[in-house]
Amino acid sequence: MERARDRMIYNIFNGIKAYAGTLQLISKLRLWKYFGVPMLISILVATSIILSAYALADNFGLYISNLWVWEWGKDTFFVISEILSGVLILVLGFILYKHIVMALSAPFMSPVSEKIEAHLLGAQRHQHRDTSFSEQLLRGIRINVRNLLLELLLTIPIVLISFIPIVGIASTILLFLVQAYYAGFGNMDYTLERHFKYDESIKFVKQHRGLAIGNGIVFMLFLLIPVIGIILVLPLSVTAASTETVKLLKAQNRLKSNDI
């Protein structure tokens, strides 16, 4: 048990450290051209979520405030309800954002991951599953719908627990780690989809969940940076996840490669 915990912590730090040098690698391999459409998708989805939170906060706030049947403190309760509604919508928006963006970006991120893999393996020809644009898109949608449903199932009880004093602090950290895990999961699958089938990829990520969490931690922190965060989050996180996933597959001798 202790050994497994230490390995997870080690992998979390590896996932975080992988971000160092990602900008240089992207420039060296001339990958920026692949990120144009995903960046646009990221901006559009993020903008839609923010505008939705702003527009719906009043409506939900008014609905919640109706639960306060007394006249005294009604205005205060409405303000609190409005703020709480906005926060809840943004939290849900964060969850939806990453899965929508990662699912729709799958066909554009797979070539990026493949080029990084070829660069890391050097003068080798590696065998992998050849998939089309539509197959990559469907795989991305399938993975992210699955992850979205599981994440929501975990998030609901964590949010309810957060209202308990003291315990609420721990639940906030747990909620962040859950979101980080599924963000890293999606980033790792851009590499895994070439080598593993759907079920095999899920099993692989579960075995190396520390790496997914580490990658996702930085992913989530980037989203807190206005504008620049949503523009750079996908290029950097996908590059970081690809480098570490390829290294892990190679270390475990799970890449079928032949010298050219």
From TrEMBL:
It is a multi-pass membrane protein. InterPro entries: CysZ-like, CysZ/EI24. This is CysZ protein. Keywords: Amino-acid biosynthesis, Cell inner membrane, Cell membrane, Membrane, Sulfate transport, Transmembrane, Transmembrane helix, Transport. It is found in: Membrane. The lineage of its organism: Bacteria, Pseudomonadati, Bacteroidota, Flavobacteriia, Flavobacteriales. It comes from Gelidibacter algens. One of its GO terms (biological process) is cysteine biosynthetic process. One of its GO terms (molecular function) is high-affinity sulfate:proton symporter activity. The chain crosses the membrane at residues 34-57, 77-97, 148-167, 213-238. Its main location: membrane. It comes from the Bacteria. One of its GO terms (cellular component) is plasma membrane.
